Amino acid sequence: TYIDHEHDYLVKQRINRLTAATPLCSQAITNTPKPGKIGVFTSMWFPRQSVYRSQFPFLEALAKDHELVLVRLGRERGDLDTSIFSEVRSYDASRDASDVSAFHPNDFAMAYFPDIGMSLESVILANMRIAPIQVSNYGHPVSTFGAKIDYWIGGRETEAADRAREHYSERLVLIPGCAQAPVPLDYRLQYPKLPDSPVIVNCTWSSQKINSVHLRRLRQIADRAQTPVRFHFFPGGAIMGNGYIPLDRAVKNILGSENVQVFPDLGFEQYMPALEGAHFAFDGHPFGGYNTAVDLLTLRKPIVTLAGNRFYNLSTAYLLSRVGLDELICKTDQEFIDLGVRMIDNADFRDRMIRRLKTANLDETVLSHEHVPYFVKAIDHLLENHEQLASQPGREPIMVE
Asked: Contact 226/254 with Cβ under 8 angstroms?
């Protein structure tokens, strides 16, 4: 997915075909659906994890009138949040992939997958027919391109509806907003004093989202800017082990070691103050970050983003528009480079963006849960109308009003 977002579907289709053809995935799963019972298959259901942070309010609301069963994928954890589930089961392919007792037999009316692709187990199970209705969402914001997932719940403001069939093998179900509901982090702002020079810019891009094309845009910005700039990268846990040293070297080879600090994986207590110690941020591209954008805006850090035509490069633009900072949304490479230089060299403009963000009502914009009921409505619509929807000849997006 992160290597070539325009052609990843070719690889995924092949992987799905091979996976679905295995004896494990070819077996028939016994299912006697119980109305309103939903299996939630995830490896990421713990606080401070990005999937949990953007999905918990949805499932919490869903649990009020539906029975949810958590099927934990992968290794055991001591920090799972099981508060909204009637039962917890486990499937760990590394221990015994053939042990499917967690869902065979089952009585799920729906199988819900928040993060397909973030664990081996999720890829395996997405290629099995576990329940009559199988649904995914933006936890890992890219189509499976060919697995046995029927529907994808997306946001009307972060999808190009006319390109739904190109971007998704699943049938797109669109709800108002961005189809995410944030869990804010518990952090008290420290308001550190920032230097006039260099201008410090956050790049909160997980390591798999860092790519040479976008780094070269930053290089052009640094070369044009009259004010010294220092980029702070936060690649996260994906670079633990042997990944940090080559990533640090590669980034500095493009941007210059004098312009860069690549942080190792930081704990929460170090991560948030480090983010606060910057003037503003650049969003990743083509893969931006929804939760990192929520964090940065909560810290009152403006973000310059290069908007695309999919959720993962539209979500930051959506959030910026919500707080009235449309000036920071760029449509072309040149706009991104020009605006980046302006944010570095023009302290008055940068401060004006920061002041506007400080006066924005985040509870009613970035942190709002106003669209949570529409997620529940979408799930109910699928539960009640799946047979009719499945019989329709086309795959036009389903609009939930």
From this structure: no
- Report how far residue 155's alpha carbon sits from residue 147's, in angstroms, rounded to the nearest whole number: 21
User: Which structure tokens are listed for 385?
Assistant: 């109308």
Write the pLDDT tens digit of every residue in 10-35.
Answer: 999 999 999 999 999 999 999 999 99
Instruction: Tell me the residue type at 325.
Output: L
Predicted structure pTM score: 0.95
Q: Taking a C-beta distance cutoff of 8 angstroms, is the pair 133, 380 a contact?
A: no
Helices (H) and strands (E) in the chain, counts: 14, 14
Element (H, E) at 230: strand 229-233
Token pair, residue 32, equals 């006697």
DSSP H helical ranges for 258-332: 268-276, 290-298, 315-322
**C-beta separation of 58 from 163 below 8 A:** no
Please, which pLDDT band fits residue 242 given cuts at 50, 70 and 90? confident
Amino acid residing at 187: Y
3-state secondary structure of 163: helix
Helix axis angle, 290-298 to 50-62, nearest 10°: 90
pLDDT attached to residue 395: 87
* Contact predicate 42/121, CB 8 Å: no
CA–CA distance, 2 with 153 (Å, rounded to integer): 21
How far does the chain reach from its first CA to its final CA, in angstroms? 31
Residue 73 binned pLDDT confidence (cut-offs 50, 70, 90):
very high
| Closest by CA position to 108, among listed 41, 40, 38, 29 | 38
Token pair belonging to 325: 């900072």
Give the span between the Cα atoms of 128 and 26, in whole angstroms.
Answer: 7
Cα separation, 243 vs 390, whole angstroms: 45
**Number of other CB atoms surrounding residue 280 within 10 Å:** 22
Q: What is the mean pLDDT of residues 177-186?
A: 94
Identify whether the C-beta of residue 337 lies closer than 8 Å to the C-beta of residue 224: yes
Residue 101, CB half-sphere, CA atoms under 13 Å: how many? 2
Strand order in the sheet with 199-203: 260-262, 229-233, 199-203, 280-282, 303-306, 329-330
